[in-house]
């Protein structure tokens, strides 16, 4: 934890953990303000978790979430009011601390000059020159100034962003590229199912962002605030501006924990867990090992979500452990799915149903998790087909909850999305439908494909090829066929490898005589456990397009 003193009353800091609160209190802080909305990051504790621990330490905690870069004058006035009513010194945090110090700066002009604001922020380690320019410009970010300018700007250093940068560099080594990413940690999220199943260690799924960004690609450590596609510009934290010739947007997806009443308050305790968060996947395995009898409930939210098979993977891996330990007969397993089918591609359902029978799991379709009472250990579901019916309540000893998901907040309010808030791209070329110098890939696009790392692995070369086609470097356009893959870990040592494209078309990467994805396979498990992690780290992220060469077609200009 590295916090920065701004004034005697205020210090700011990047995201904190629950375990750091005692040290914050010991450092003399009396109150806390959270300026980060829940669900921005896969390793982010919810405000409810922070507040519960802070309250136990006697520290008042205020939740004032601000969308990255969307700091308004009203937000600043509210922040100032919070500072005045809270006992100081006050500890404020967001993802990087920039939002918190920006809120302070926007009202500090009442007592400080612009030069004094810049001096205090620089001393704290933050560059607020863009904020000062905005203040001098009547609150609007000037569009005639660029803090950075690059040929290609990539938003996001997750799987899609790093893979696109590497694919571009492999094709055009001298291309000027910058990646905009506020986080310092990169996660191999497909590994979290195996963490929750006791196969992987959580630390094996983590590397620094600095270590995965390709050589000669600039890293701009900031969160995106706004898009100005008509000016070929984005605005980032601190009201700084970045000009581009071509833009690639791959920001991932938001986990909406707060859309389930009571869920945020009980995550990580009372038997409530989720493999969708880095710090909770080990808790899943702890619960599985310790459960000898009782009821285990697994949930799946409304689509779309990333890795639609992950909710049931957690169930299969848990059941396999209980089966091998000889305790499964004493555990009642329930799967509540908001959807109407077990899996969206029918060819894979028969094999999955054999495991449902083996594990004596009860399937409850069209039931959506809407409320969790962690202390009482009760989960409540609404019937999708009967919205006015009473909620269905079930007790649990273990609850694996998967939250509803949506585009990130800064994407939803941007001019590059469709009516539902997803980035509006052509599903074959991944080029934006309205702004031809913008491309997008990954979980936040509106193409009707599965939101998986395997999809991003196929999409990255397509985007790289087509972006360079627009720049006159490539002669052919690449086509994305909707490929996605979901290795369904039905037991330790066997996987049903679902591979499919648009419309549920089966797209096997190997001949069926080698690997029939509709049947459980030890070879597919070996692929999941041993081969896919190095393919991810050393192949996909390095621009080595193993099994991912895009289909191309010649276009007569």
Distance between the termini: 55 Å
CATH C-level class of the largest domain:
Alpha Beta
- Give the tally of β-strands: 28
Question: What do we call the CATH homologous superfamily of the largest domain?
Answer: FAD/NAD(P)-binding domain
Mean pLDDT: 94
Helix run count: 16
Whole-angstrom Rg: 24 Å
| Strand percentage | 15-25%
Total number of distinct structural domains: 3
Counting copies of identical and different chains, the oligomeric state is: single chain
Level-2 CATH architecture of the largest domain: 3-Layer(bba) Sandwich
Biggest sheet character: 7 strands, mixed
Shape: globular
Low-confidence segments: none
**CATH level-3 fold name of the largest domain:** FAD/NAD(P)-binding domain
Specify the helix fraction band: 25-40%
Structural class: alpha/beta
Structural features, described:
By secondary structure, the chain is an alpha/beta fold. The chain has 3 domains: 4-136, Alpha-Beta Complex (Protein-Tyrosine Phosphatase, Chain A); 148-253 and 407-554, FAD/NAD(P)-binding domain (3-Layer(bba) Sandwich); 255-403, FAD/NAD(P)-binding domain, CATH 3.50.50.60. The strands form 8 sheets. Strands 6, 7, 10, 11, 12, 13 and 24 form a 7-stranded mixed sheet that branches. Strand 20 (378-383) and strand 21 form a beta hairpin. Helix 3 (73-85) crosses helix 4 and helix 7 packs across helix 15 (453-470). The N and C termini lie far apart (55 Å). Residues 5-108 form the Beta-lactamase hydrolase-like protein phosphatase-like domain. This is NAD(FAD)-dependent dehydrogenase. Keywords: FAD, Flavoprotein, Oxidoreductase, Quinone, Transit peptide. Its cofactor is FAD.
